[in-house]
Amino acid sequence: MKRLPILFILPFSMALSAQEFSFSGNFTSFSQYYVDDKKTGDFTEKDRFRSNNYLKLNSEIDKFSFGLQIEGYAPQAILNYSPSFDEQIGVATYFANYKNEKLDITAGYFYEQFGNGLIFRSWEDQQLGLNNALRGGKIKYAPFQYLQFIGLYGKHRVGFDVSEGEVYGFDTEFNISEALKIEKSTLNFGFSIVNRSQEIENAAEGFNKNTFAYSGRLNYSKNNFYSNVEYVIKDKDALLEFGSVNTNSLSKGNALLYNAGYSYRRFGLNATFRRLENMTYYSDREVNDNIDNEQLVNYLPSLTKQHDYSLANIYVYQTQSRVTFNPFEKAGEIGYQLDAYYQFEKETFLGGKYGTNLAINYASLYGLDAEFNRENRTFDAEFLSLGRKYFTDFNVEMRKKWSKQWTSIFTYINLFYNKKYLEERSGKVNAQIAIIDATYQFLPTKSVRFEAQHLWTNDDRENWLAGTAEFNFSSKFSLFANDSYNYGNEINKIHYFTFGGSYTKNSTRFSLNYGRQRGGLICIGGVCRVVPESTGFGLNLSTSF
Predict the structure, then answer these.
(1) Shortest CA distance to 329 belongs to which of 427, 241, 204?
(2) Distance between CA 512 and CA 395 in Å, rounded?
(3) Is the pTM higher than 0.90?
């Protein structure tokens, strides 16, 4: 294990000797043992057993707090995690913080978000292998309740090291309503500046190592209505092409996000519009096509509903914010998402005895309508014109309680997926998916859940059938089995089955499973990680203290 920084040994020693202090932590482990399988193929990589482990420790003393996270990837990280994690055990992140009513100072590794994240967000998701914490310093200052300033500097975490590029940021938030004592509505204004600074060897003459981005945002709400808008301008940035940075090809970027919603009694409506042009933003320009989710400066999740079911996650949309000329010309994306909710009252024809919840969602994403000059590597994009269609998802979900024991969820999905531009493979997919999810509650802690899914398509790998059975014997112990069968695939019909269980006691949860993993994308919150097709055992453990 790496030696702990002296800066963080001292605070923990102080905590142990102090009369009053708090100490907490948690441990999480994800492990896999891969086996050979005639259907998914033999395991040919090194080390069949792989494990990702995270131990987080935190201490608080009066207005000070200290923390560190120890990580271990032994003998290697789980397949398709960043190679920067492999065969390493040690202190991954650490921080010291001081906070009072107006001042909040952090040194070490930290996380932060400006506005909606279009210009800057640092965060962690262990299941995705994503941790783009900054190592440096951050200061928050709030001279009044309605005014806040944030200044930060750091380098992105890359495995157990940091990136070459540097990130500088400033953000301010001003609550106009609170400052003017307006009670019937809320109006907030925010402004951000972020700079990524990185030297590039053999760069073109006059190339600027700094890439600034500027963001303005406005939030307004009154009674049952709310809305927010944010616009970002990014300075000229170099084109990443064929694995190298082309400093002779420079293009500006911008982003627009508008969100509005209205709710009244049992009805709710939300609409979101987003346009992205050349908005990839990494602290190291050379990882602009990074599949390991490292060194991300901003946060651009997919503007689609995040589905919970296996067949609904076969054709998953990923945000298209890059500029590319080969093999296809793309400059970004433009699209929108609409959500409508309605609750039918109890004791009505559609509501029944217990009421009925209905949700309708529609998302449609397109490429930017642009003219490209391949010779000079330049483009000119229209602002509000729609280009090639990338993806659509229309879905309806009904949640219904039939009795004290029976509840169910009915889902219908109709989608279009353009493989040519989303995966750079030929073909388009038009598919429909129907899902029935039913739960029977025996006792307050005992239940059984059944799930049936079907995907219809004449494209790609054609039809799928899936099912799940889950038995909850108590609030502590449960077993499950599921299977996704690609019966429409004439070349390779395959069952992707998994069975296992979990046991929970107090704050500790243990789960074990065995099965096949379908290759493709695993997505959480609209951010995805590519996973390979494989078979094996999975073991997960989490506990807190």
Answers:
(1) 241
(2) 33
(3) yes
